[in-house]
Design goal:
By secondary structure, the protein is an alpha+beta fold. Helices cover about 30% and strands about 30% of the residues. It is built from 16 helices and 20 strands. It has a 20-stranded antiparallel β-sheet, sandwiched between helices.
């Protein structure tokens, strides 16, 4: 087996393990709280194994509870999958060989981009897995058993004393990947190379080398909530380098994400860190905006907040720019697919959303997309709080409509005056009297707007505007799922992005075909997913904080 294939195979094992840890933590939010009366709370929100990891490591993922505490998940088969992946081709039994000593943490890390730091022979990343042990003696017996089986399979074994720790490792064989292991400070360590273990031990004995000494990491763990069951930390420039992404001028240098559980679902909180000053997109809001009262309950995707005119200068926009820069450098088209619906609106209307709409929305706003059965394009509604800049802004839209050959007409709908931008089309048919053509004029509505209270409401079609009028007493704001979701997100914040999974996943699949594959791989989780809600909040200098709440069926 070549070095490249060996490294790639071990990389696949570690990455698969990391994904499994995250899926287990996420799915547990449903299974634990609906099937078990006991609370699932991690004993600590910090990784004890971080001391083994280099402060230059691109990514560290930790599960901070014992997998056996997630046994309620076993009905979905996810725990068995995790155990199988960890013990692949080992010939070991989890219950007999690992369960007796395993503690409350499993950490996976990419510790270095190149083990030997020699670019001439190609990059060989270093991978480290640390399992907390409650019985070091039992752990040592497990390692001896593991490597004895590998020797029987043809591996050549080597043992070494290094700075007070006993290292045991072997070489690669046709059916075996290289493996190194040691028991150090209440942790069982595994790596794809003995040099990775030596570096891990050096990090413990020279703490200024470890992740725990990183100023970015120290700042990050201060943001962690109590009781997180899983935590990930990213060194963003190094992560981009590892993935081969172009990131010439990174704005954010690190990120930490934590997962906590409550009776309604899972809350994933994340913080991005930068040395520059953070500019929030809007003033903090202590409650959902009033514009939501005009969004119909049929909406599948809703975005709400205030001060769209500030969005382009905010650090939220800078984060989006950094993501686009990185991903576009990788040759993928994920970002362009996500932006496609907005680009389609701009093209259809001949407008620039930032200049022609966002610039004069200085108060509250809400945007909703409404799926239509049998139609690929959803209906949309945009609600904005009226400000002094509104007359000029609407006049600009009228002028753009006129330049596109549209007419501005007033009509009455449900006894409410509505302004419509229409395309007039002449149609002909034969006359019954003298067999001569008769002419009719048909109006194709391209958009409408009307004033309701202190808000201006814009819609894509008459059907959507009619939904606004007929659901005055049953608006989206009264949606119980939405209320449950926003209650889980810290306040004040900069507003919400709410996605009803059942109503919107077909629309998302059209924009992101890879989502179908993810739904197959994570079927037990996606079957229970009801909605996703995103928000940004916080005002700490140099920190952009946000959260995603995943509401699960109870």
């Amino acid at each position: 087996m070549s070095t490249v294939n060996t490294q790639r195979s071990f990389s696949g094992f570690i990455v698969a393990g990391a994904i499994a840890l995250v899926i287990v933590a996420i799915a547990a939010g449903y299974w634990f709280f609906t099937k078990s009366p006991v609370s699932l709370i991690a004993s600590t929100s910090q990784s004890g194994a971080a001391i083994f990891v280099s402060k230059l490591a691109p990514v560290t993922v930790s599960l901070l509870v014992n997998p056996d505490r997630l046994q309620a998940l076993e009905s979905a088969g996810e725990i068995s999958k995790l155990k199988t992946s960890l013990l692949a081709q080992s010939g070991l039994d989890y219950r007999q060989d690992i369960q007796p000593w395993l503690g409350n943490e499993i950490t996976l890390a990419v510790t270095t981009l190149d083990i030997d730091r020699d670019p001439e022979n190609g990059k060989q990343p270093g991978y480290l897995m640390a399992l907390a042990t409650e019985k070091p003696a039992k752990s040592s017996e497990f390692i001896q058993l593991l490597f004895s089986k590998r020797v029987l399979a043809g591996a050549n074994l080597t043992t070494e004393e290094y700075n007070g720790a006993k290292l045991i490792y072997d070489d690669a064989q046709p059916k075996l990947e290289p493996l190194a292991s040691a028991v150090v400070d209440q942790f069982v360590l595994f790596a794809n190379d003995a040099r990775v273990l030596r570096d891990a031990i050096n990090n413990v004995q020279a703490p200024d080398l470890s992740l725990t000494s990183s100023p970015q990491y120290q700042k990050a763990i201060e943001q962690l909530p109590k009781g997180a069951v899983a935590v990930t930390f990213f060194n963003l420039p190094t992560l981009a380098q590892w993935q081969g992404l172009e990131l010439p001028e990174p704005i954010y240098d690190s990120q930490i994400t934590s997962l906590t559980l409550n009776s309604k679902g899972l809350l994933a909180e994340t913080s991005f860190f930068t040395t520059s000053e953070v500019t929030p997109p809007s003033s903090p809001l202590s409650q959902p905006v009033g514009a939501l009262q005009y969004i119909p309950p049929s909406a599948g995707l809703v975005i709400s907040g205030s001060h769209l005119n500030n969005l382009g200068d905010s650090n939220l926009a800078k984060l989006w720019t950094q993501a686009k820069t990185a991903i576009s450098g990788s040759g993928t088209d994920v970002i362009s697919r996500l932006e496609q619906p907005l680009l389609a609106i701009q093209k259809a209307w001949g407008i620039n959303l930032t200049q022609d709409v966002f610039s004069w929305v200085q108060g509250e706003y809400a945007l909703g997309l409404i799926p239509r059965n049998g139609k690929t394009s959803p209906g949309w509604i945009f609600v904005a709080e009226k400000q002094d800049s509104f007359p000029e802004g609407i006049a600009r839209l009228d002028a753009i409509a006129s330049s596109q050959g549209l007419n501005t007409n007033s009509l009455s709908l449900d006894q409410q005056k509505v302004v419509a931008w229409t395309e007039l089309i002449a149609a002909t048919k034969k006359s019954d009297a003298q067999d001569r053509p008769a002419f009719t004029v048909e109006a194709n509505v391209k958009g409408l707007h009307t004033t309701l209270g202190n808000y201006e409401v814009f819609t894509s079609d008459l059907e959507t505007m009619n939904e606004v009028f007929t659901n005055k007493d049953n608006s989206f704001m009264k949606n119980r799922n939405f209320q449950n979701s926003v209650a889980a997100i810290p306040e004040p914040n900069q507003g919400y992005v709410y996605l009803d999974w059942n109503k919107s996943h077909n629309l998302l699949e059209r924009q992101l075909p890879i989502l179908k594959l993810l739904e197959v791989l994570g079927k037990p989780f996606f079957d229970q997913l009801r909605s996703l809600t995103f928000s940004s909040y916080g005002s700490d200098a140099g920190t952009l904080k946000g959260a995603a709440f995943l509401e699960l069926h109870s």
